[in-house]
Amino acid sequence: MPERKCIAGKVIYRSSIAGDLPAIARLETLSDVPDGSGLSEALIALPADTLSFVAELDGHIIGHTVLTAVAGPDRALALAPLVILPAYRDMQIGTGLVRHALNQARAQGWKSVFVYGQPDYYCRFGFKSQLADGADSPLQGQRFLALELRKDALFGWSGPAAYPEPYLKRMKSKARN
C-alpha cells in the first residue's frame, strides 16, 4: 500500500454509475455499520432525487456516499450512508468524498443538507445541530445536524423533514445503537 499521506491525492471523486453498484454493495457489506448493507441501492432506486458519489483509487471503488432529497425545507438533502473501505480510513478519503458531494449538490442548486452522525466529524464541513433544530424528525437530538449550502436556506424554517423510507429505517436502527 502506498504512503498514507499520498493516497488522498490520487483518489478520483466522481458520480457513481450503474456498473459501480456491485462494488458499492461490497463496501456496505464490509462496513462496521449495523444494517448498512443495501441502503445505497435502495436509495438510488427511489424515484426521488438522489446523488451518488464514489471515491476511486487505481480503478477500485474505496468509498461511497449518497445524498437523497428530503421533503420539507426547499431543496434539502440527507447525507448517508458514508462508507469507506476499512483499509483506507483515516486517510482523508471520507473528507474528500463528502466535500465533493457537497460541492456537487451546491452546484446543482440544492440549498441544505441534513445528516445524522458524529458532530466532531461533520462540523469540519460546517454542519451544526442548531441549524437542524427547526426540523420535526424522529432523529432530532445532538447528532442530528444540518448545513446550509445557500446562505440562510434554513433561516426561520420549521416543519417536518420527511426522509425516504429506506433511509429513515436505517437511521432509526442507528439511533438505537
Automatic annotation (TrEMBL):
PROSITE patterns: GNAT. Transmembrane segments: none annotated. Residues 11-154 form the N-acetyltransferase domain. It comes from the Bacteria. InterPro entries: Acyl_CoA_acyltransferase, GNAT_dom. This is GNAT family N-acetyltransferase.
